[in-house]
Amino acid sequence: MSSIVKLVKTLQTKNLFSIGLLFFVPTAIAAEKLGWSALAVFALSALAIVPLAIWLSTATEEIALILGPSIGGLLNAVFGNATELIIALVALKEGLVDIVKASITGTIISNLLLVMGLSMLLGGLRYKEQHFQPMAARVNASTMTLAVIAIVLPATVISTSNVVAPSAINNLSIFVAIVLIAVYAFTLLFSLKTHSYLYEVGVVDQEGETSPHHGKERTTKHPKSNLWLWVGVLLVATAGVAFLSEIFVGAVEEAIQGLGLTPLFTGVILLPLVGGAAEYVTAIRVAIKNNMDLSVSVAMGSSLLVALLVAPILVLVGQAIGQPMDLNFNLFEVIAVIIAVVIANLISLDGRSNWLEGMLLLATYAIVGAAFYFHPV
After folding, report:
1. Domain chopping of the chain, boundaries
2. Which of 70, 39, 53, 42 has its CA nearest to residue 240?
3. Longest C-alpha distance within the chain, in Å?
4. Within 10 Å of residue 8's Cβ, how many Cβ atoms?
5. What is the C-alpha radius of gyration for the chain, rounded to an integer number of angstroms?
6. Is 50 exceeded by the pLDDT of residue 210?
């Protein structure tokens, strides 16, 4: 009984917003079973996925605290973008390859521009200037540059060659995917083992709350939760996301046609808003608490996870299930990712942020979003 009470208290303090949104879970299921319009099913299932994604993220954080920094960090690294991966796998199984590819670039763009922008803006409105670890930002920037190269090269091969066989692009994509997964493994070794001291930011926020107290940071420790209770929450939330993703993906094509949206805009703008809700809430919440270290780590780390692990997994799974997916992204997507990475790196490398820099990131995201909306393909 005490474990259940702790669970309820944790959900009330961390996920009050998500509790209200749980209303949409049975509503979305009923809408699909009763044959409501595709647009209604699409909207309701998208809203239903959001609270489950937040619960999944919260369960991962709680389990990480119980198991310690090494195993916890690995768990966060694997489950950090579980919602995006589940939605993408379901869409890939349904043959929506273009939307899946667009969602990869869209997640990178939204994390670097929208999430970091909102965090720096809202945090900067409360604190004149915020600071974070520049060394970790530089490491993330270097790794993100490699991810951009992996996205750029297949498109460059096609644009600089007269004829390129589809098999050649598939083989190149598989090779690049394997290299990226290897790089991700090395980044885990770097961040969790050999240079873990660079990533020991945000621990105070995860373990308790910090607040200024006579010029010093005062930490309030929270009691550790029951491991198996949170494992159960993690499994239920994951199963719920997978189930609702089937409903969501099943309605997406007809819904976007009714709205007059292109698959490119849907993948780049709409899907990341659904799948990345948990990261958005976490990054903004800790930024308002003046923990920009953790906020920047969440935003950039999520982008790295998508580029170095989620995208390669989708390429390999697509080959295995007969839905070949390559890394030959639309040239406009490539340019948008380059823009997002360059401006995010320029703003984050000095280890300081303010509300104006957040506004610049949001303005860039708005312009990029408008460009994808009016893009004809």
Report:
1. 2-374
2. 53
3. 68
4. 11
5. 20
6. no
